[in-house]
Every structure is written in C-alpha cells, then in structure tokens.
Amino acid sequence: MTAGLLGLAPETAQAQSNAELQTQINELKAQVQALTAALAASRDGAASAAASAAPAASASPPPAALAAAPGEPPAASPAAASPSRSKAWYERLSLRGYTQMRYNAFLSGDDTAPTGQSRLRSVHDGSISDRGGFSLRRARLVLQGDVSDRVSLYLQSDFATAVNNQAGSERREGFAQLRDAYADIFLDKEKSFRLRLGQSKVPYGWENMQSSSNRLTLDRSDAINSAVPGERDLGVVGYYTPPSVQKIWDRLAHDGQKLFGNYGAFGIGAFNGQGINRTEQNRGLMKVAFATWPFELDGLGDGLAGQVIEIGGSAMLNKVQPELRSGSISPVVYNDRRVGIHAMLYPQPFGIQAEWNWGKGPEYDRDSQSIGTKALNGGYVQLMTRLPTDSIGAVMPYGRWQYYRGGWKAGTNAPRLETDELELGVEWQPWKALEITLAFARMKRAEADERRAGRAEGNLIRTQVQWNY
C-alpha cells in the first residue's frame, strides 16, 4: 500500500502544479489587458486636457503626471512637444581672420640715399627701409553670415594699419581701419545674381580682388593695384555667376587652388572713386566693369585633363582729386581711365598668371612742378607650381616679374612710379592654419615721393608667416 501511494504522488503533484500555472497565466493576461486599457485612457485624457487648458497654460504650471501603471513615464509637457526654434540672425554669424608677420633683410642696395635721391622703398610694404625689423603687415578680423535667405553681411577690419605724422615724421603702427562693410542682396533663389551695397572691393583686376590671405606673392603688383590702391571704395556693384562657372570654381577650391574670391563671372558697379576711407570730392562716380570666364581643357587631350584656363578683362572710368603736399586736396579734377586684361592657367601642377593694363591718370610732372594727366601702363607675369604632399603639406614655388610706368594717385602729389622687379619665392603650408613664405627680390624702383629723383636698386630676402583662424 505504501509503495502504491508513493507511485501516485508525482502525477498528483504535477497535475496540481499545471493547474496553478495556468491560473497564474490567466491572471497575468488579465492584468496586461487592464494596463493596456488604462494607458490608452490616460493618453486620450491628457490630450483632451491639454487642448482645453491651452489658454490657461501660461497662468499655471502643467499638472503632475497621472499615476498609471507602475513604471509608466510621465506625459510630455506642451513645451517639450513644440517644434524647434529657428536660429536668430546673430546666431548665423561666423568669426574668422588671419595675421601676417614679416621680416625684410637687405642683402645689398640703396637702403639709404642723399636728400633728393630715391631710396629703395615699396608702396605696399612700409617695413622695407634702412631700419628693418619685424612688422605686422595685416591683422584681419572678419564677421560674416546670412542674416536671412536673401541677405548676407560682411564686416572686416585691419588692426595693423600704420598712421603717419603723429609726432613729426614718426610712423605709428597698430591702428584699426575699416576695410569692408557691405551687404549682399541675392536676387534669385539660386544666388546667381547679387547686389552688393557698402564699402567693398572694386571689381578691377584679377589680383586686386584676390584676398591677401590667398595670394601667392607677398604683395600685389604696382601696375594693377595703382588703379585702386587699397582695393576698396564705397558704392554699389552687381555680380552674376552662371551655375556652370560656379561648378568649375567649386571644383578648383576643393582641389586647394588659390581663387580670386567670392565674386561673379561678371560685375558692374559705381563707386565714389576717391579711394578707401576717403571723403568724395566731386559729383562724378567711378564706373567699373569686370568679366572673367574659366574654360575646362579636358577635351584637348589626356595631358590637359583637369586643367582650367581663365581669361577676362576690366575697365574703369573715373575722376579723382589727389592730396597735395600742403595737406589740402587738389581743386583740379583729373581723368583716371584704364582698361586691363588677365589670364590664368591654374597650377595642376604647373601654372601661369598674367595681367596688364593701360590708361591715363594723375601724375606729378617734375618739369612743371605740378600734377597732370599722363599715360600709364604695366603689369606682371607669374609662373608657379603646386606640389601637394601627404607628409609635409603643400609647397608652391613661384617666380614673378613686374613692370610699371605711371602715377600713384594715392600718394601725396600723385608721384610717378618706375618699377622693375623680379621675385623668386616659395610658399609652404604645412597645415591649413599656417603658411610660411620665403622670397628673394631684385628691385629697381622710383620712390613714391615727388621730392626724390632717380631710381634705387637692391636685393632683399623677404619672409612672412601667416596664421589663419
């Protein structure tokens, strides 16, 4: 009997455990259904309460989350459910800039000269002198951004401007100067057409419009820059860039080429014409026109695959009144007219860049001891190669010859310049934030001072370090 009872015990226990398990499963199903119904009801109630209580939401805080089933997260507040706020205009602005530090060393030449004779000097770099030393050529800070879909602003100041005659003939450094202050108004959604209002670069000359932070040579050429010393003026200019041209420029920029800037393939404008940060002296406006067009050379053979050549020209009509030695402004208005051409074969890896211009402008005449309107001409030819590497960065050797005969209207009494210069150099960019340039220059120049005659000669080693931020 005892053995029989022991044999039936496991079956009875198993039946009882199965029955209990089934009961527990049924109870869990019922609880899950109840929790699901409660959750749905709480969500519907919260949505209805939020809709009916919207007017009073600002007056009282939202109620605490309803207690539903254990572990349920609280309902989201109306503020958290609202769409993200678009950026304000000042949140779209960006800040950037660059600084250039130089050191020039005379190897030989006329760093000094007797009174009345030209010393070796440059209108672009005041640190070329018998005193030498380190100098800050530029210290630029740029604030820019799209304040709306159709309006963009650009502000640039230079904190390394020099001011003369602060204590006799002493030159003072490190003054701030406004360089650019303009707004771009885009006339179409594709941003092919833009109207630029304010103080900006005058569209004359390819090199003149190229940023100094992006230029290969240390200074601009005398001949092209003499059209617009300082490169800028106050006025209005319209630019147009066809999408096909923009596509080529975007590809060149992605490849690391040194482009001439954010300007159009075509530009036409009107400016005061007196020069950067100078008060206009007459009712006449400086009229300028500019055109440039890049051509892809891929169809001319495998040897030219990827190569781009760019050609174009500029024209300017202006009337200007130079500053006199007495400190006043000339009452005589002088014609200032010229036309120029440019060509550029981008270095991939070898390239060539050239510009030339002709015209008439104010120039001091030593015989009559007065300013007159005289002919001018000049330009430059530049050869360069670009050698990008993965180990030491990009290296760009270059050579440039420049020539100019004509007046320098930005100088006192519009002195005559006679420039012949050969510059051989190399730029090394180990990182994007750092550029180092070392150059040798053979110069023969007339000093930009009508009181000094003749031309000075000399050989210099020129160095520059530029850091970008």
Quick rundown:
This protein is of the alpha+beta class and 469 residues long.
Q: Roughly what percent helix?
A: 10-25%
Structural class: alpha+beta
Helix/strand order, N-terminal first = HHEEEEEHHEHEEEEEEEEEEE
> How much of the polypeptide forms β-strand, as a percent range?
over 45%
Tally of individual helices: 5
Overall residue-averaged pLDDT value: 87
- How would you name the oligomeric state of the polypeptide chains in this document? single chain
Summarize the main sheet. Answer: 16 strands, antiparallel, barrel
Radius of gyration: 36 Å
Distance between the termini: 99 Å
Number of strands: 17
Order of strands across the main sheet: 1-2-3-4-5-6-7-8-9-10-11-12-14-15-16-17
- Unreliable segments (pLDDT under 50, ≥5 consecutive)? 1-15, 50-81
> Per the principal axes of the C-alpha atoms, what is the gross shape?
elongated
